């Protein structure tokens, strides 16, 4: 699961060990598609949400299962 963390209008993430930042909706859409094509799940979060999930493994597990089920429905 790849968190896309928004900060001041810029979305950043770490994908395959590299930090990436995007600042337009078009770039964000392309990044989401790349993540999906690699077989990962993405989640768009603000910094507070990211920290909340980071500190609670059970919430991360529940979110992962939710994202997985949504992908299967597609």
Descriptive tags:
30% strand; alpha+beta; 74 residues; 3 helices
What's the helix and strand layout?
Layout (H helix, E strand, L loop, with lengths): L1 E6 L2 E6 L2 E5 L2 H13 L4 E5 H8 L2 H17 L1
Parallel strand pairs: 1-4
Antiparallel strand pairs: 1-2, 2-3
Poorly predicted spans? none
For the report, how would you describe the main beta sheet?
4 strands, mixed
| Record field, number of beta strands | 4
How do the strands line up in the largest sheet? Answer: 3-2-1-4
Strand content: 25-35%
Structural class, judged by helices and strands? alpha+beta
Instruction: Name the helix and strand elements from N-terminus to C-terminus, one letter apiece.
Output: EEEHEHH
Dominant shape = globular
The residue-averaged pLDDT reads 91
**How many angstroms separate the termini?**
17 Å
Number of domains: 1
Radius of gyration: 12 Å
- Which range best describes the helical content: under 10%, 10-25%, 25-40%, 40-55%, 55-70% or over 70%? 40-55%
Number of helices: 3
